[in-house]
Write a structure and sequence with these properties.
Number of strands: 11
Largest sheet: 6 strands, mixed
Bound molecules: 1-O-pyrophosphono-5-O-phosphono-alpha-D-ribofuranose
Number of helices: 8
Distance between the termini: 36 Å
Radius of gyration: 19 Å
Helix content: 25-40%
Shape: elongated
Strand order of the largest sheet: 2-3-1-4-11-5
């Protein structure tokens, strides 16, 4: 019997898109569908096992070898600084990491109060600009911070821009473009090379054709 290839998928919209891609590549699991509460699923041919995990935890599972491969946003990879191989840009979940706030917020003198879920990325961005900051780590609804005066600016993901617009905030600086990446554990890349390459090739074929 062939050993399974274990793949960590991010729970939520991105993970569902990836599950659809895997299905198109003939690597899907009938059980992988919205609404299923099972955390571990087998592909129809039994060659793959999928785990649903919190998006920010995918690099941890892959780096430590609990999963052979996984799908994570570039934002999560940079913030975590994961020691994994990045095999493929899946072209899904495209968005931008931005500094945002009320117009003119960056002109404030002194240390800038920055609310974010991404303290490492934010710190590196402002350090490269020589700007002193005070990081306020939040876990969600980041846009509320400047509205309530908790922070001067935020560093966060902008996808459609609707959340900023509806709250009268705007993009003040772009930090980096973000998209979903196929990542691989370093040992699995050596010892399960053929399987990993087949997975990457199947997904690459679909993402190139489908975009
Ligand atoms: C993300 C992000 C922004 C929003 C951007 O939040 O943190 O708030 O989406 O998308 P938009 O540009 O299309 O409006 P998410 O929905 O993940 O929830 P969160 O507030 O819990 O982070």
């Amino acid at each position: 019997m062939t050993e399974t290839l274990d793949i960590a998928l991010p729970k939520g919209r991105l993970g569902e898109k990836v599950a659809r891609l895997l299905g198109e590549a003939g690597m899907g699991a009938a059980e992988v569908r919205e609404g299923s509460r099972a955390l571990v699923l087998e592909s129809d041919d039994g060659s793959l096992r999928f785990f649903w995990v919190k998006p920010a935890d995918v690099p941890i599972y892959v780096e430590r070898g609990a999963a052979d491969a996984g799908v994570a946003g570039k934002d999560v990879l940079l913030e975590h600084g994961a020691d994994v191989y990045e095999l493929l840009d899946l072209g899904l979940g495209r968005c931008r990491m931005c500094v945002a706030g009320f117009p003119g917020a960056l002109e404030r003198p002194g240390a800038l109060r920055v609310a974010t879920k991404y303290p490492d990325i934010a710190t590196r961005h402002f350090r490269s600009r020589g700007r002193a900051i005070d990081i306020i780590k939040l876990n969600g609804s980041i846009e509320l911070a400047p509205i309530l005066g908790l922070a001067d600016v935020i560093v966060d993901i902008v996808e459609t821009g609707a959340t900023l617009r509806e709250n009268k905030l705007e993009v003040l600086e772009e930090v980096l473009p973000v998209s979903a990446r196929l990542i691989c554990n370093k040992a699995a890349f050596r010892f399960k090379h053929g399987r990993v390459e087949a997975l990457a090739a199947a997904l690459a074929g679909i993402t190139e054709g489908g975009k």
